[in-house]
What we know:
Blueprint: H1 2-44, H2 51-69, E1 80-82, H3 84-117, H4 126-129, H5 131-146, H6 182-185, E2 193-195, H7 197-200, H8 203-246, H9 251-296, H10 303-318, H11 320-326, H12 329-356
Antiparallel strand pairs: 1-2
Amino acid sequence: MDDLANxxxxxxxxxxxxxxxxxxxxxxxxxxxANLVIILGISCNRQLYNTPNYFFLSLLVADLCxxxxxxxxxxxxxxxxxxxxxxxxxxxxxxxxxLAFLFNLVIVHYERxxxxxxxxxxxSFWVHRRFPLVLLAVWAPPLLYxxxxxxxxxxxxxxxxxGCCSFNDTGAPGAPVNCSTMVAAVAxxxxxxxxxxxxxxxxxxxxxxxxxxxxPAILSIAGMTGRVLWITRGQMKDIxxxxxxxxTRGGGQxxxxxxxxxxxxxxxxxxxxxTFLACWVPYIIYIHVCVAFLLSKETRGNxxxxxxxxxxxxxxxxxxxxxxxxxxxxYTDPVRKLLHKLRDRWRRRQDxxxxxx
Length: 357
């Protein structure tokens, strides 16, 4: 009877693990490799050794760390028996990496926004004069905030934690469906307790992070992007006006140039809009679903829904720096040249073999 209960308890965890790794491992591998390619491209080009690229390099490092932690993030929403110190570690460290990634993303957008809004005063901007302090500011506050549960702001003394990973003899009807059950079904190791994000992060901590950090950061990025597009639209109108004023002959030629400018601007707006929808909307949906579940005060949840939303939400947002990096040919030129050399060498070898035959 115990073997049947253990077997029925192990199966949910195995299915959860397969789903998590089936989604996160390919996505994490792609994120890591793409970040390494862009980092290599910046490191090999000395012309890119400047403050804006240092900020972007810091963002790539944070994105790389997020890609490494991605397979472990879905486990944060699943209850499992761990010692409280281990529970703190598996929740605090991914949260720190994610917040550091978000802070780096905001500062990169802000630096580029100021470059467009105030191009004449760009070189004397305070971010450029004190960029080591700015880099410290985008890494230290996330670490301090994410570590607050380790300094006592947690729910360890909350009621009802001893049974959150317990199962009945049949293994399902009375059990939480989002609980990892392999260790809970058998004898748990000594000193282990129920590890749940509700135990590590109090409700006030979650609300403050979502509505005090995440929402303002996303809104600021969206606002800066919209402002840049608006400025670009105004500059394009000025260029078209100048073309019309200086063109005395060939009015159709000026009209054709205006059409090309309008088409290019339309493509730019479409690309930015699609990037925002693809990278941010899944994460926004994931955050609101998590907050709704938190407000419902339920201990049960659909583990499959949580896993899919967390993987797609975090993963899609981690793609944002890769879109910015791969769109810049300066970042990818060293790797492109290396691939061209390898291709030419392979072709020469093939030609020499054909000649020998």
